[in-house]
Amino acid sequence: MDTLLIIALCLGSCLTAPSLGPKYDLDLGKGNPEQVLDFSLLGKPKLTDEAKKRFSPCGKDDEKWIYKKEFNACYKEIHDVSFNEAKEICLKFDSQLISIHSAEENQFIYDLIHTNETKWYSDHQSLLLGGLKLNETFTWIDGTPFNFQTWAQGEPNNYKLGYDNENCLAMFTFSMDYAYHLYPPEPYLARWNDNICSKTYTHSMCKKMALF
């Protein structure tokens, strides 16, 4: 079996990692990668100080991710996706659709993504999050606790045309013209809304834990 596959299957379930061998290359420089990896933390390689000099908290493609030390996480914006499309894209990046666990993180995400333009109401412009309604209860698909929520007034309401299918979660990130919208003029920016999973959202975001 390929060494990379062995390591991928083993992380999180094996007590010890197999020998990586001299030909394995992590793009950390010359030499055996065992010099820069430490498997003492079960489930996640721990980078040594030498590796940290060559690696960023978000990995090799750090320039494509935004690192936030306060949340020990990395974030990457993606565009024009449905829930299933966003989920698959994030998995390809070894990440998950974003989960949010505090008011501070929620505000950070809003500040990253929001626009100052006032729009005729279109919830396609909302930011798709990684929340999914299962058995009438919202949960994060990355398995983390649903321990923070900030719904807009009247939400979640499963509103869409009586189809009873607003099973996904989105964040309001833009100003709306209230003459064409149902919501009263109350603070709604950065608040959440239940919405349809199959529609195409202008914005979504992947999240992964930082390496160190």
From TrEMBL:
SMART domains: CLECT. Keywords: Signal. Gene3D superfamilies: Mannose-Binding Protein A, subunit A. PROSITE patterns: C_TYPE_LECTIN_2. Pfam families: Lectin_C. It comes from the Eukaryota. Residues 1-16 form the signal peptide. Residues 74-199 form the C-type lectin domain. CDD domains: CLECT. This is C-type lectin domain-containing protein.
